[in-house]
Amino acid sequence: MLNRAALILRYKQPFVDWINAADPAPTSHTLTLAEVNQERTVYLVEFQDEDELAEWLARHHEELFEEELNGWYTDPALWPQDRSLKMLQEWCSFELHTVVVDTGESPLQDDEFEE
User: How many whole angstroms separate alpha carbon 79 and alpha carbon 36?
Assistant: First the structure.
């Protein structure tokens, strides 16, 4: 068991509307809410309850929002100007899972870290 919790953001319709509207090369296929929520990033966090989540979001909402936006379009000019906590909460719901069990046998590694 890891000393972390898992935080998962699920997109709401306003996020999907932005994804479709911001597409610099619009395709014939408009993404749906179900499609964009099929694969989600899991954030490992160091808190264990909803109160701590609220405090953490108050401090880290902008970087979390930007990480999610960057997952769709890497050009910040396409991102919404308003990246407030209120807007993040309007665009996403949050799932906090406090039990994280590592069933792998190899040590945890950071794929972006090079020695």
Answer: 17
| pLDDT tens for each residue of 6-15 | 999 999 999 9
Q: What is the pLDDT of residue 113?
A: 64
For residue 86, is pLDDT > 70? yes
Residues, the chain? 115
Rounded distance between C-alpha atoms, residue 110 and residue 6, angstroms: 16
Separation between Cα atoms, residue 43 and residue 38, nearest integer Å = 16
Structure tokens at 55: 């405090």
SS (H, E, C) 64-92: HHHHHHHCCCCCHHHCCCCCCHHHHHHHE
CA distances from 63 to 19, 22, 42, 83, 94 (A): 18, 20, 15, 9, 15
Q: For 45-76, what is each residue's pLDDT tens digit?
A: 998 888 999 999 999 999 999 999 999 999 99
